[in-house]
Design a protein that fits this description.
mainly alpha, three-stranded antiparallel β-sheet, Double Stranded RNA Binding Domain, about 50% helix, disordered C terminus
């Protein structure tokens, strides 16, 4: 029982158990009642942080005896009081490091929430539609090929080469549509993979106590908000059977309307 009582962390000034505050430069645990008394010692620099964040304030790289209690908002780096008053950061915007960290954490939570609940699900949904689009293109092309086969059997042997040529054009258009859909799928999956990585990075940032890592965070969510345009096959060529009239030329026996649109690579 005595050993358990000795393990309890206490205020370094009044022995109050479980103190909620900590003075980083002095390395002292403080209860709420002792904070003001501790700050009254004006011969020392003090910086009070929540007890859970003790040891999280980095030391200055240029002034080893000082801790970085300020964030330079222009450079996005922690700095000490001396760096704040002299040198390159003098004219820069500055903010208390704890306040800046809290704001960055809130931005991280906001970005994580948007990525997980809105942006990434849209990419998932788009990825699911790819097989359906591919199957629809194949089905339309197969139906068109079947119609051409039936008509080809009803006409004279002399137009066999025309039928084969039309099939080749359909195959080419089908391949272009499938290629466009494949590119669309690759773009979606590539961005989805990036989003997953960003989400994992953001979760690690939320869990870390490393102020330097958090202060360096810059939101990349805006880059994912521009969702790629949904690919659609606007139209495919249609085949209209004609009555065979041997008085007509072979090229008049078939009518194939080839008004169609295949998106360029830039559209993806």
């Amino acid at each position: 029982m005595d050993e358990c009582l000795q393990d309890v962390i206490r205020c370094d000034l009044c022995e109050t158990p479980v103190p909620p505050k900590h003075c980083e430069p002095c390395h002292l645990h403080l209860c709420e009642a002792c904070v003001e008394n501790h700050l009254s010692d004006q011969f020392k620099d003090h910086y009070i942080v929540p007890f859970k964040q003790r040891g999280s304030i980095p030391k200055c790289l240029y002034h080893s005896t000082n801790i970085c209690i300020i964030l330079c908002k222009d450079c996005n780096v922690p700095i000490c009081k001396i760096c704040s008053s002299f040198g390159e950061h003098v004219q820069h915007k500055k903010e208390d490091i704890l306040k800046a960290t809290a704001e960055k954490k809130e931005l991280i939570r906001k970005d994580l929430r948007e990525l997980e609940k809105f942006i990434y699900p849209r990419y998932q949904e788009a990825a699911k539609s790819i097989p359906v689009q591919r199957a629809d293109v194949n089905k339309r092309s197969q139906n068109l090929t079947t119609a051409l086969d039936k008509q080809g059997k009803a006409i004279h042997t002399e137009i066999y080469t025309i039928i084969q040529g039309m099939k080749s054009e359909i195959d080419d258009m089908d391949a272009q549509h499938i290629a466009a859909i494949d590119q669309h799928e690759v773009a979606i999956n590539k961005t989805s993979t990036k989003i997953i990585k960003v989400i994992l990075d953001l979760k690690r940032l939320l869990d870390t106590s490393d102020v330097c890592l958090v202060s360096e965070y810059t939101s990349r969510t805006e880059a994912f908000r521009s969702f790629p345009a949904q690919f659609q096959v606007t139209s495919l060529p249609t085949f209209t059977p004609q009555e065979i009239n041997r008085a007509d030329s072979a090229t008049d026996w078939f009518s194939v309307r080839t008004s169609h649109h295949i998106p360029s690579k830039n559209a993806l």
